[in-house]
C-alpha cells in the first residue's frame, strides 16, 4: 500500500531527523532558509497508522514567467531506500504530490553509497600511471543493494545525471566524496591514520605558534576575504558574503552546533578559515579558505586537525571532506586536494549520484538546454 505524502511542520521534520543517526545538512528545514531563490517545503511520508516514516526537504525553483517548478531534494529524501517496494510505495506518491504542486521535473540525490575505495586503494590509483579516473580503479567494496536500487530507478523512468566535466564534479551535489571513519576510533587512532606529511605539518604548525580558534558571525568578513583569494587561486566563482551570513544565521538558529567557523591565526595574522557542519553523527568540512602567505607554518593542517578533534568530541561517526575529483591525472589542479584529503586517512566514497524524473518532457528539455548554456 502506498504511503501518504503531505507537508509537515519544521518541528516534525527536525524530530524525524533527530531520530536518525545521519542525514544530509541539505535535508534539514533550515537549509531552505539558506536558499532564498527557492521556495522550501518539508514533506513527510505517513504509514497506515499515521506514523511518520520518512521526510524530505523540497526546494522549488520557478521557471521564469511560468508557475511551474523544478522540485529538488538535495542529498535526499530520508526514506527507506532499500525497501523492495521503493518505487511504488515511496517514490510514486512523491511524484504525484510534486506534480500537484506544479513541478515539471523532479531532481533528487539518494543518500545511498554505491562503492568505496580505502585510503590505500586511492593512493595506489593515484600512483598508477595507467589509471585516469577513480571510477575505473578496482573498489575495495561494493555496497549491497545499491546496484539494484539504481536498476529499479532506471526501469521506472528516472534518469541518472552523469558526473560532470573532466574533474568528476557534477552541476549539483558531488557524487564522489572523501570521508574519514570515526566510529569506534579514539583520537589517537585517528591521528595514527594521518600520513607522515600530515603529522609532520601539524607538529610544525604547533611549533610555529599557529593558534586555531572558533569564530562567530562577526568573523565571517575575515573568512570571506580569504575565501575570495582562494577562489582566484583555484579558479572558481565565489559565493557572495551574504550567502555565508544567511547560512550561519539560519543553521545556528536551528541548532547551535549545526554550523561552526574556525580560524587559524599566526602572530596576529589570519591565515586560514573553514566552516564545519553537523547533523547527528555526520560532520562535514564545508567551505575552506586560506592565503598564500606563510604557507610554511601549515595553518590548514592545524585547522583541520582541530576540526577533526572537535568533531570526534561531538560524537561524529564520520568526518566528511565532501567532494573530490574523479580524475587522477597529474595535470589536474584538483589532484592536490584529493591527496590532501586522503592524507588525513580518508576513504573515497561513490554515491548513486543525482537522478531526474521529467514530469513534463518539453519543459525538462528546455531546462537542460538552459543549464548547458550556463
TrEMBL record:
| InterPro entries reported for this sequence | Acyl_CoA_acyltransferase (IPR016181), FEMABX (IPR003447), PG_Glycine_Bridge_Synth (IPR050644)
Which portions of this protein are annotated as coiled-coil regions?
A: none
Q: Which Pfam family, an example, fits this chain?
A: FemAB
SUPFAM superfamilies in the record: Acyl-CoA N-acyltransferases (Nat) (SSF55729)
Which Gene3D superfamilies does its entry note?
A: 3.40.630.30
Q: Which PROSITE patterns match?
A: FEMABX (PS51191)
Keywords per UniProt? Acyltransferase, Cell shape, Cell wall biogenesis/degradation, Peptidoglycan synthesis, Transferase
Which family does the similarity line name?
Belongs to the FemABX family.
Q: Which PANTHER family match?
A: LIPID II:GLYCINE GLYCYLTRANSFERASE (PTHR36174:SF1)
What is the protein's given name?
Answer: Peptidoglycan bridge formation glycyltransferase FemY
Q: Which organism is it from?
A: Streptomyces osmaniensis
Q: What is the lineage of its organism?
A: Bacteria, Bacillati, Actinomycetota, Actinomycetes, Kitasatosporales
Amino acid at each position: 500500500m502506498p504511503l501518504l505524502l503531505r507537508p509537515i511542520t519544521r518541528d516534525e521534520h527536525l524530530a524525524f531527523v533527530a531520530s536518525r543517526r545521519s542525514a544530509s545538512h541539505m535535508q534539514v528545514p533550515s537549509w531552505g532558509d539558506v536558499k532564498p531563490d527557492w521556495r522550501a517545503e518539508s514533506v513527510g511520508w505517513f504509514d497506515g497508522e499515521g506514523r511518520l516514516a520518512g521526510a524530505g526537504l523540497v526546494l522549488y525553483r520557478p521557471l521564469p514567467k511560468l508557475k511551474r517548478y523544478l522540485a529538488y531534494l538535495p542529498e535526499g529524501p530520508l526514506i527507506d531506500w532499500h525497501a523492495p517496494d521503493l518505487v511504488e510505495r515511496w517514490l510514486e506518491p512523491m511524484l504525484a504530490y510534486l506534480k500537484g504542486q506544479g513541478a515539471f521535473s523532479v531532481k533528487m540525490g539518494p543518500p545511498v553509497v554505491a562503492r568505496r575505495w580505502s585510503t590505500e586503494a586511492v593512493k595506489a590509483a593515484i600512483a598508477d600511471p595507467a589509471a585516469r579516473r577513480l571510477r575505473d580503479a578496482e573498489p575495495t567494496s561494493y555496497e549491497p543493494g545499491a546496484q539494484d536500487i539504481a536498476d529499479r530507478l532506471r526501469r521506472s523512468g528516472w534518469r541518472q545525471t552523469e558526473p560532470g566535466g573532466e574533474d568528476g564534479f557534477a552541476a549539483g551535489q558531488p557524487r564522489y566524496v572523501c570521508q574519514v571513519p570515526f566510529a569506534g576510533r579514539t583520537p589517537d587512532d585517528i591521528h595514527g591514520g594521518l600520513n607522515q606529511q600530515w603529522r609532520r605539518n601539524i607538529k610544525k604548525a604547533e611549533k610555529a605558534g599557529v593558534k586555531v580558534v572558533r569564530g562567530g558571525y562577526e568573523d565571517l568578513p575575515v573568512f570571506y576575504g580569504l575565501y575570495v583569494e582562494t577562489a582566484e587561486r583555484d579558479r572558481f566563482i565565489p559565493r557572495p558574503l551574504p550567502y555565508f551570513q544567511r547560512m550561519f544565521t539560519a543553521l545556528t538558529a536551528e541548532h547551535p552546533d549545526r554550523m561552526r567557523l574556525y580560524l587559524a591565526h599566526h602572530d596576529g595574522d589570519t591565515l586560514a578559515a573553514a566552516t564545519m557542519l553537523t547533523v547527528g553523527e555526520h560532520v562535514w568540512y564545508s567551505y575552506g579558505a586560506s592565503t598564500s602567505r606563510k604557507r610554511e607554518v601549515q595553518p590548514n593542517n592545524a585547522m583541520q586537525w582541530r576540526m577533526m578533534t572537535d568533531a570526534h568530541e561531538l560524537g561524529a561517526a564520520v568526518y566528511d571532506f565532501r567532494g573530490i575529483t574523479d580524475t587522477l591525472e597529474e595535470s589536474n589542479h584538483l589532484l592536490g586536494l584529493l591527496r590532501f584529503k586522503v592524507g588525513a586517512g580518508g576513504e573515497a566514497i561513490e554515491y548513486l549520484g543525482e537522478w531526474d524524473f521529467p514530469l513534463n518532457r518539453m519543459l525538462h528539455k528546455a531546462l537542460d538546454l538552459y543549464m548547458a548554456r550556463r
